[in-house]
Design goal:
Layout lengths: L10 E5 L3 H10 L4 E5 L10 E4 L6 H6 L6 E4 L14 E7 L13 E6 L2 H13 L3 E4 L5 H25 L4 H18 L1 H4 L9 H14 L4 H17 L2
Parallel strand pairs: 1-2, 1-3, 3-4, 4-5, 6-7
Antiparallel strand pairs: 5-6
């Protein structure tokens, strides 16, 4: 009994042996014959070649692929023009990929295709990985990618700052972070917002600011910007 969903190609070459390339190759193997190759490989014999290389290397990697197969990239910000003249697709899993095995199931994915066939294959690959596909136009990709950075990368940067203010207490802070994200996802930002700014406790906020000035003075301007943005959000929710 085959596990291959309709339209998933029989032979897939994944070019790029970094975290994403390795993870995608492993996740697609139950559905297709998958070959993982290093940057510069030509993907010979594949029906689809997925380029999991840095954004600046996509166009060069695409030129190494001989005409014939569909060629896709896994970039969130790059348009399909970087893959010309190949019939092209885009598949960007909206999920962090660390050294640990990522869980693609349930995550989103930006998909695109230069032809209806290429778009259908992008959707089929997303479905095989358990991803929820969303079509993102080239003009919207920079904003889509910026949103992803704010939601994921900047969140980690903020948690690193929290650890500077309260060293050695990551385990204490982590449940609070998870609850805040879960509340935002379930109820939206205005209803999820809690804390002294949301309740108008200016004296407590002033004491917090003084602690930031004492412990991480180089980030005081960032604190002020975030506090102002939080006040605006709190006001919108009233």
């Amino acid at each position: 009994m085959t596990l291959t969903p309709p339209s998933v190609p029989d032979r897939i070459a994944v070019i790029g042996t970094g975290r994403l390339g390795s993870a995608l190759a492993a996740a697609l193997r139950p559905f297709s014959e998958v070959r993982l190759g290093r940057r510069g490989a030509d993907g010979a014999g594949a029906d689809v070649v997925l380029l999991c290389v840095p954004d600046a290397e996509i166009a060069r990697a695409a030129t190494a692929v001989a005409p014939g197969p569909l060629v896709g990239h896994c970039s969130g910000i790059t348009g399909l023009d970087a893959l010309a003249p190949h019939e092209a697709l885009g598949l960007h899993p909206l999920m962090t990929v660390t050294a640990a095995r990522p869980a693609f199931t349930g995550a989103g994915a930006a998909v695109a295709g230069s032809t209806p066939h290429a778009l259908a294959v992008a959707h089929a690959l997303a479905a095989a990985l358990g991803l929820r596909a969303v079509e993102v136009a080239d003009a919207d990709r920079p904003a889509y990618h910026a949103a992803a950075s704010v939601a994921s990368n900047f969140l980690v940067t903020l948690q690193a700052w929290a650890e500077e203010l309260l060293p050695g207490e990551r385990a204490l802070l982590a449940p609070l972070v998870r609850a805040a994200v879960d509340n935002w996802a379930a109820e939206g930002p205005e209803r999820a917002l809690t804390g002294p700014i949301a309740r108008g406790d200016t004296a407590t906020v002033a004491r917090q600011r003084a602690a930031v000035a004492a412990r991480t003075p180089e980030r005081l301007a960032l604190w002020d910007h975030l506090a102002d943005a939080t006040r605006e959000l709190a006001g919108a929710g009233r």
